[in-house]
Amino acid sequence: MDSDDYLLHFKGYNFERSLVRSDLLENLEDFEIRDDDVFIITYPKSGTIWTQQILSLIYFEEHRKQTQKMDTIERAPFLEYNIRTTNYINRPSPRLFSSHLPYYLVPNGLKNKKAKIVYVYRNPKDVMTSFFHFSNLVVKFESADNMQSYMNTFLDGKVVGSIWFDHVKGWYDNRQKFNILFMSYEEMKKDLKSAVQKICKFLGKELSEDDLDAVVKQATFKNMKSDPRANYNDVLKYELGTRNDNGHFLRKGTIGDWKNHFTVEQSERFDKIFQKKMKDVNLKFIWDINEE
Ligand code: A3P
């Protein structure tokens, strides 16, 4: 499969062709936003389904207490990939949405700065590593032979989500236009409870100590992996399709797995590009679990 077979290029950005509807894309800018809408926005493989679980647990008592079984993809559906054909207009407030959209394609209503955006980013070497494995797992994606060739594909943006640098820098440079909180995957990983507290503060949600603990407990890698509402096993099986049965969305869930995949030369090449492209971006990046 060639990248052009599965990528839909629309206004300078790559979508997964079979999962989007072009009429929806054409009307994205005018999609009506409510003041209490909350968006999770990410570049792919940066912690999207993790954040879907966290926000579902924060917002819905029935999710936190497990009294209602509903998948997180339905609690926080993707705006541009309406995989379960949810009726967005009829959904009760507050609505949660997920999206991989770049800043310039999101609905204009988000610029009234009332609706909130939680933007989760991750160090791009781990994003690339995660994407590499994911591309070899999901039938709909172009498979990758090796890291060397995949690095070129990734850096050229011939993937869903286009160029990682453009996505993160674009959102960062335009942050004043939105009501947005930047969270890193790594800060969530290193101290999940503090990360959840930070997210709650931004969302104006006050949880009791017990509820906070319940959120944190159900959002750990281990517990999410065995939680059918949150592990995306069904999405992989029925909506995306896999090349083998051993792969999961929750693959490893660590910081620094790139070290097991990058050669020193590849890492140095990546560093050079990162330093050049991200020099004005004042976001903290953590590349190694032992880093302070
Ligand atoms: P790895 O492939 O490195 O394991 P996305 O949801 O944006 O597609 O991101 C998927 C990545 O997030 C995967 O990374 C997955 O394991 C990781 N992830 C999902 N839930 C997690 C959790 N609770 N804790 C840590 N990592 C998690």
CATH architecture: 3-Layer(aba) Sandwich
Estimate the strand proportion: 5-15%
Distance N terminus to C terminus?
42 Å
> What sequence of helices (H) and strands (E) makes up the elements?
HEEHEHHHEEHHHEHHHHHH
Structural class: alpha/beta
Oligomer: single chain
User: Tell me, what is the CATH class?
Assistant: Alpha Beta
How would you describe this structure to a colleague?
- The protein has 292 residues and is of the alpha/beta class.
- It has one domain (3-277): P-loop containing nucleotide triphosphate hydrolases (Rossmann fold, 3-Layer(aba) Sandwich).
- Helices cover 40% and strands 10% of the residues.
- It has helices at 3-6, 22-26, 48-59, 61-64, 72-75, 124-137, 147-155, 164-173, 185-190, 192-203, 209-218, 221-225, 233-240, 264-277, and strands spanning 7-10, 13-16, 38-42, 96-99, 116-121, 179-184.
- Strand 1 (7-10) and strand 2 (13-16) form a beta hairpin.
- Helix 3 runs antiparallel to helix 11 and helix 10 crosses helix 11.
- It is globular and about 50 Å long.
- It starts with a helix and ends in a 15-residue tail after the last helix.
- The mean pLDDT is 96.
- The structure holds adenosine-3'-5'-diphosphate (A3P).
- Residues 42, 44-50, 126, 130, 133, 189, 219-221, 224, 249-253, 257 line the site of adenosine-3'-5'-diphosphate.
Question: Features of this protein?
Answer:
about 290 residues, alpha/beta, Rossmann fold, four-stranded parallel sheet, two-stranded antiparallel ribbon, binds adenosine-3'-5'-diphosphate
Helix and strand arrangement:
Blueprint: H1 3-6, E1 7-10, E2 13-16, H2 22-26, E3 38-42, H3 48-59, H4 61-64, H5 72-75, E4 96-99, E5 116-121, H6 124-137, H7 147-155, H8 164-173, E6 179-184, H9 185-190, H10 192-203, H11 209-218, H12 221-225, H13 233-240, H14 264-277
Parallel strand pairs: 3-4, 3-5, 5-6
Antiparallel strand pairs: 1-2
Helix pairs in contact: 3-11, 10-11
